[in-house]
Amino acid sequence: xxxxxxxxxxxxxxxxxxxxxxxxxxxxxxxxxxxxxxxxxxxxxxxxxxxxxxxxxxxxxxxxxxxxxxxxxxxxxxxxxxxxxxxxxxxxxxxxxxxxxxxx
Length: 104
Fold this sequence. Notes:
The chain has 104 residues and is of the alpha+beta class. It has three helices and six strands; from the N terminus they run αβαββββαβ. A hairpin with a 4-residue loop joins strand 2 (37-39) and strand 3 (44-48).
């Protein structure tokens, strides 16, 4: 099996009042550990955790849309928790946010 056959992808959504601000803060915070990127015209942050793992967060009306891809489901669930804790840290006035995840 190759990595694409075992990859686990989940989509999530976190309703919040300032999605763009929280994503930008997370891009800056994680840029010390990985090559994050911010696409201003799309209000999107990209987080390459490793060669096989990444998250894309996009500001949408009413919240943050998240696509998380990892090597397997257990790692996907682990990284969901990491993402949630970090977003909640920046959204402390609204936290804890409610996260809705769906496996793809």
